[in-house]
Fold Clustered mitochondria protein homolog.
Amino acid sequence: MNNADKAMVNGDEAHTPPEEAESKQDGNDVTDAGEESNEQEVIVIQDTGFTVKIQAPGTEPFDLQVSPQEMVQEIHQVLMDREDTCHRTCFSLQLDGNVLDNFAELKSIEGLQEGSLLKVVEEPYTVREARIHVRHIRDLLKSLDPSDAYNGVDCNSLSFLSIFTDGDLGDSGKRKKRGNELEQIDCTPPEHILPGSKDRPLVPLQPQNKDWKPMQCLKVLTMSGWNPPPGNRKMHGDLMYLYIVTVEERHVSVTASTRGFYLNQSTTYTFNPKPANPSFLSHSLVELLSQISPAFKKNFTALQKKRVQRHPFERIATPFQVYSWTAPQVDHAMDCVRAEDAYTSRLGYEEHIPGQTRDWNEELQTTRELPRKNLPERLLRERAIFKVHSDFAAAATRGAMAVIDGNVMAINPGEETRMQMFIWNNIFFSLGFDVRDHYRELGGDAAAHAAPTNDLNGVRAYGAVDVEGLYTLGTVVVDYRGYRVTAQSIIPGILEREQEQSVIYGSIDFGKTVVSHNKYLELLDKTSRPLKVQKHHVLNEKNECVELCSSVECKGIIGNDGRHYILDLLRTFPPDLNFLMVDGEELPLESQRQGFPRQHRHRLACLRQELIEAFVEHRYLLFMKMAALQLMQQKAIKDTKTDTSAITDNGECKGPLASKEFEESIPGLAQAKELAETLVAEDGSCIDAKSQEVVLNACKAVGSISNTCFDIRFNPDIFSPGVRFPNNTADEVLKEKQLLKDAAAFLVSCQVPLLVKDCLDHSALPMDGVTLTEALHQRGINVRYLGSVLEFVEKTPAKAQLEHIYRIGISELITRCAKHIFKTYLQGVELSALSAAVSHFLNCFLSSFPDAVAHLPPDELVSRRKSRKRRNRVPGSGDNTVWAMWTRLWRNMDLFKYNFDSRHKPAFTEEDILNIFPVVKHVNPKASDAFHFFQSGQAKVQQGFLKEGCELINEALNLFNNVYGAMHVEICACLRLLARLNYIMGDHPEALSNQQKAVLMSERVLGIEHPNTIQEYMHLALYCFANGQLSTALKLLYRARYLLLLVSGEDHPEMALLDSNIGLVLHGVMEYDLSLRFLENALTINKKYHGPRSLKVALSHHLVARVYESKAEFRSALQHEKEGYTIYKNQMGETHEKTKESSEYLKYLTQQAVALQRTMNEIYKNGSNASIMPLKFTAPSMASVLEQLNIINGIIFIPLSQKDLENLKAEVQRRQQQQELGKIEEPAADGLLELEDKIPVD
């Protein structure tokens, strides 16, 4: 097993969580079977490609590179996208006169080889083909129109990178002159992004792309009112009729027939289907229109040229819909396809499915059942799972919106609206209200609102463990217009029988009646270890003992398809006692000191899975230390025969065992730990009595459920109202209660301080509410602890350095409170008053206008705000800024400022509310093999093996593409890391190309103002600079600064890095005064957030000094460099090379200052005939600027000879081996570079 993999596994190896253990048995896992098997498997996937010739009617034959795995259908897609063949949709591909099957893989076709000629043959149309053709032509006409992205449909989303690069990145597009001719660069930043500017205009957020100015090809293209053709015309081959108005104002009626498209003689009011003269019969609509409209021909060609020039990543659909919260006012254009979609709701024919609507449940479960023995099989399986999930999420979202908008009939229409349930497109929808007092004891509607997200987390957890034979439902939770809708796939047969008959495992009434089933126990037992769920007994209504391996709410139902389904997984994870008042139970002191337990709106508050993992990990370390200590004591007793004190049971974080000094003060602890590890690994069966006792004591101390090995699990039913335990398990129940209390205390006493520490040393750097929420979740802290976290921040001595966290936290808190109110408020608003209600709410919330009144046109119904109790709501997904809540606000371009301070008129009017979008939560299936490659690649890179790392990450990229398609957050992380490696290894153009893809993907998949996108822009600017594209680098940095101002404001540690980058580039292009503004701002921010003695501050001083030197203001330069020198001297000592460098530079500056002074004196003394010594005013060289840019961006090149490299590698390997033997306690030396890129975890 090679080192990278070891490093990866090593952390958990001793008590490998079973999900890993199981995946390891799957055979060729990266971490287990070594790389050899993987490399062979990967070769299987990437058979070498070959080239075929394609001959289409009316065009020259061209070559196309294909791979044997591709289907014939993929060649179809390529042809429908190519500029010269894009107008064809209804054709077949023929090889030597034989038609190729669309769904055949190329390698299975006889006679297809390098250089074969494939002919494109036009086929007769059917109604379906004609519709597809019209839809495709409409898509080509709309290909540059951003309105689909603004309206959040069809997985379109916005991207603005090409506006700032002007298409001059890499080899594509117009090549600019290299950046050596400095004069032509315009460096002035827009006024509103200068340091200290208070202006925050919204218009630049969505700059207008000149390519989007519509090139009109047609005025109208729509279905004719004469559809469908009457019987006698059907028999002549008429399929449908179109009505078209050309740019030249010519009105024509077109027949789509089996042979193609031609003009007929119908008008708006008379039906005459006979062909006109001439009829211009053409196989493609584009050919027909090009003959009758010169403007169409010219503009369509130009439009396709532009379309093909755009980067593919600007055009590909994203796997899940991304919504924008702002949009310009777009004119509503006539569009036949959109109109048809809206009214048929696409149910009649989902484009790719023959026959009826999709059976979602069957698709979701069948993909899970696909084989997964080797890599190609696993890739196929994961690709299928991912595709079905993203389709299901899109369909569920459409359905949920249709349900709330009132377009779907309920299956129980007689009941009150809150209780109604719906079925649409084979998906079951229910609303998040407490129906039939189901949740009465748990908090009523508040609990009913929290349950769906808890259930979704359960589905996610069981899905990740992926046990064969155990099935969960497809689940999507949609928040829309104040309602929470749960969408689920339907278990076959469930609608035909009563729930009581179906449930054969679990309870339908929260534990009053409970049943169990052996098959379910067996299946759930496999999940109990990875999910840390304890098998336990409860009493049913007859006081009989029933064994369960999940919470009682978890129901097992065998569908008509014979599959074992589990549902209602809302209590997969144990309850959070800090928010659960239980009579007669005391929480540990750590919790009590912080004012817990607190009353919560409902009793379903659970701990997060991340917390459970962290807690178990923490307990494991404790367990190891205890076992090791006891072994040492035994050894000492053997050696000295003296008695030593017994070890104390201490499970809490602050116990002496957890302290570092304690560990270091004991000689030989490392060897004892090794011994302990061997003991634990033996499973306690064949070791001597003394060692068994050691393990037993350690197990007891940390609350392990087994006495022979470390194993911590939670009982999810503890403290559930209505659940009773048998008397003979009283002791176990007590232990389980204690474990829960310890976990609650661990969250408060360990995880919250850990988060604050990470924020202090900037290893966690939230920039907005979303990233703050992610940072909390990664450490297992629920958002309901946000107040406690902020209180903790306030009491921290270094509070000033956490101001950004405090500010983001407070605005997140206010926004979430407003969201609870907004939700209840919206439920009482009817559709006609929606925009007025939303703008009124935002005025009350954000503007200073004293008496905000909702203005409604007199003829509209005044919305009766139902005096319903304001029911609170569980925090949903994060919101970007205070106003990015659910609405998209934008005023017309001429009134582009919202004035929140005006006391004379409200900030928003109803014209500003353009749309309301849903917030969608769903499961994100993962590409496991690709992820392993990515992690091994990261590990290699951190050890300094850049080339091997680069290969592994390229491999990961291929596998990610294989599973997710071209667009995904994880592919984005992959590309970013690859670009960084390319850059470090000196391949600047390749770095530029990969980073450009990363930026585009981040904009499309995460959003144009997501913090990740901002960072991607900064990396791209660096690589542009290295490639000599200075003006582009500046534009990108200005864009990043504008976005960062919108998202986090000026006062944020990340701004210091950004301003240092901008300052350095401006210094490079000799804009010294501008450069100083940015660099001095960076210095101020660094001082505030890193402390005045930090090395970052020293570097900032040095950068400022360099600019002053270039301006020949030596006194200021000296002053700054002295500050820097003092910091280096105090922090690093006199002999450190940084201190020496700084001291040399000080000497140089002093000489320059003296020379300047002499020259000045000479001029004063002798007037104009003075003999002036030439002074060295150095404009900085690009290389020196680049070197500083690399340093501030954390990329450090160490100039090494080949010999040095060999020695370094040997040293790294030696250290690693030692570490694995446990000889070195401190971590190995850092690799050559720091990479903070981790794939975002769900």
User: Anything to note?
Assistant: The radius of gyration is 34 Å.
